[in-house]
Amino acid sequence: MRLSPLTGCLCAILILACPPALVLGQDYGQQPSPVRYTEAITKPVALTVELPGYLEAPNVSVLAGEILGLVTELKVRERERVTRGQPLVMLRTTPLELRLQAAEARLKEAQARRKLAETGLERFRGLMERNAISRHELDEARYEIDAWQGRIETLQAEIAGIEFDIKRSTIRAPFNGVVVARHTEVGQWSEVGERLLEVLSTDTQEVHVDVPEKYFNDLNEGVDVDVIFDSVPGRVFTTYIRALIPRADARARTFPVKLRLRQPSERIGAGMLAKAVFPLGDSSPGTLVPKDAIVQFGEHTVVFLVNEGSAVPAPVKVSGAMGLWSVVNGAVAPGDKVVTRGNERLQPGQPIQAEPLPYPSP
Fold first, then answer.
1. At 131, is the secondary structure helix, strand, or coil?
2. Cα–Cα dist 12/331, whole Å
3. What are the structural domains of the chain?
4. pLDDT tens figures, 11-32
5. Is the pTM of this model over 0.70?
6. Quick one: which of 16, 65, 294, 320 could link to 48 by a disulfide (CB 3.0–4.6 Å)?
7. Which residues does 224 contact at the CB level (< 8 Å), separation at least 6?
8. Model confidence over 39-52: pLDDT tens digits?
9. Sequence-ordered list of residues with C-beta below 8 angstroms from that of 91, at least 6 positions apart, any chain
C-alpha cells in the first residue's frame, strides 16, 4: 500500500518528532514482526460522546411473610434463578387447615338449621291461616331464618379468610429473577413482615449514566444508545433512553439518565461498570478504525499503517465511537490497512508481516 501525499507528509512529521533512537539505527532483527490488520472504513456517523455508567436492576424485591408461621420448606438457594409465580418459601399450614375444617363443619350446621327454620316457617304460615298461632310467633320464625343466614355469611367470610392465609403461607417469586440473599432457614419462626428472601429482577436491566448538563438537552427518550461493558469484551449492547431525569446533582451538575437494555443478558449483573455512547447530532461521513488500532506513541495518539512491509505511524484524533470502532480524524483514509494486533511495541519503519483480521461492522 502506498500512502497518499497528505498521509505521507503527516507521518513524516510524526517520525521527525520521535526520538532518534526510535527511528534511526534500530536493529529489528532478521524476521519481520507478525501483526494483524483491518482496513479503515467510512460510515455515516453522528457526533457522539462516551460517558461512564453502571448497570442497575430496576426491581429488587425483599420478600416477607404476611402471616405468622414456621418455615417448613425453603426451595431455593442464593444465586438461583427463579420464574414468576414459583414457590420459594413454605410456612406450616396445619393450624390453619384445622381451623378450616372446624369452620366448614359449623357452616354445614348453620346451613342445616336454616333449612329447618325455613320448613318451620312454612308450617307456621299454615297455622297462621287457621288462626292457631299469633302474628308474633310467625315473625319469630322469619327472624330465625334471617339469623341463620347471617351466621352462614359470617362463617363463609371466616372460611375465605383462612383459605387466603393458607394461600399466603406459600411465598412466591414476584417476577423472573435471581435470589441474591436468604434471611431464613427451615425450622425458623417467621413473624409478620420479617424478611425471608431478596430477589433481583432479570426481566429488565438498566444502565445509570450521569450526563453533564451541556449534553442533557441534546438527548431524547427512545433513542438507541450503544453500551460496552469491560467485563464482556468484544460485545456491544443496544439500549434505549428510557428516562431523562430533570434533576441535577448540585455539586457535579450532572443529570441522571436511565438506559434500558433491549435484550437483557445473563452475562452482566448489577453494579458492572459500563460505557455509553450517546449520539448528539446529525450524521455525516466519517473514517472509522477498530478501537484496538489506536495506541499512545509518546505524546501522540496514532495508528500504525501497513506500508509495503513496514509499520508507519499515522497521527489521529478520536472524535467518537460506534461500538468496537472509533471515529478518527487525521492521516488515515478509508481502505488504509491499520494494525490491530501486535501494535503495542511497534516502532516507525519496523518490518512487519501482516495478515488480515476481520472486525464486525459497526
1. coil
2. 11
3. 5-45+283-356 (2.40.420.20), 51-58+203-281 (2.40.30.170), 64-92+169-202 (2.40.50.100), 94-167 (1.10.287)
4. 544 544 454 433 433 555 558 9
5. no
6. 320
7. 238, 239, 240, 279
8. 999 998 777 888 99
9. 65, 67, 69, 70, 71, 72, 169, 170, 171, 190
